[in-house]
Amino acid sequence: MFRRLSDCHNVEDLRLLAKDRLPAPVFHYIDGAADDEVTYRRNTSSFEECDLVPNVLAGVQDVDMSVTVMGQKLDMPLFCSPTALQRLFHHDGERAVAKAAEKYGTLFGVSSLATVSLAEIGALTASPKLFQFYFHKDRALNAAMVEKAKEAGFHALALTVDTIVGGNRERDLRTGFTTPPKLTLASLFSFLRHPSWALNFFLREPFELAELKSHIPEGSNISVSVAEYFTGLLDQSMNWEDAADLRAKWGGPFCLKGIMSVADAKKAVEIGASAIMISNHGGRQLDGSRTPFDQVAEIADAVGGEIEIIVDGGIRRGTHVLKALAAGATACSGGRMYLYALAAAGQAGVERALGNMRREIERDMKLLGVTKISDITPDMLRYR
To answer: Is 281 marked active-site?
Structure first.
């Protein structure tokens, strides 16, 4: 089936277009998750287990969907979660996402495994930017990344806490996915079937992990799976003292990404974190774990008002955002929702994804009978 960006009206449409345009190993890296992918599927289906209760005759001609997240005003309550390896999916990579996020007035999260330097991204846009930090065994690398994020003018730092070891991503095992991709008979056949992707990847600037290449060869000069990278290079001894120390060294808005329990949310408050991202890493780590939406209400009941709460994962519709906000979230974020779009059409694709979601959120707020985010309350939700 021939698909065009103009025909993409939702995340699934963009997913199918990305599948057309990417070699199979690269597509399945984005699309896949851990073990049986139960948690991955439930990240989205969990939103179906409750209903919104709208009010009417509310005078909803003018809607303000802005929120403040980690000191930054966003024009909508959804932002681009940090994701790795973006120039694998489109040759513009993080550059395209940064420009699209700026156009829609929202925050862009940049991964430690980014393929464009923090300095370049910082100079490219003035819009809010979050640096996502992986805690490596190499402490000199950790210190260098913090300083580079400060120098580049990043507004906040998020420590990912759910990658002590790599998840069992069986699709990657079957396709042989590595970063950078290895040339094998199977992958070569897939690359040849996607000549536009192959020409852009092999003939443009060399693929590399921009902030890591001078410290470690894995991922830039030596092919490695993401699971091997996490298990071999990240510090498995990382603990709450390390998180508190990193927060102090950063000195600005600080977030913990990968919090799932009330107990850990309370500890995040204790160490002075500004925000938590309730996240299971897109179902790519512990299969069978709870979903972010499952957990937001009880975490909000415990620490709401003491720390900002971001629901990260499974977001596919504007109603998903509204349900998360009603359950107690400050805002939402997503990765696949814009990665499919990046792979499908670069910056234009990401703009399409963000535009679709913005229109849905605005329309759904009007249908719910609210004109600002603070009007969305728990009594608008009914669980089945």
So the answer is: yes
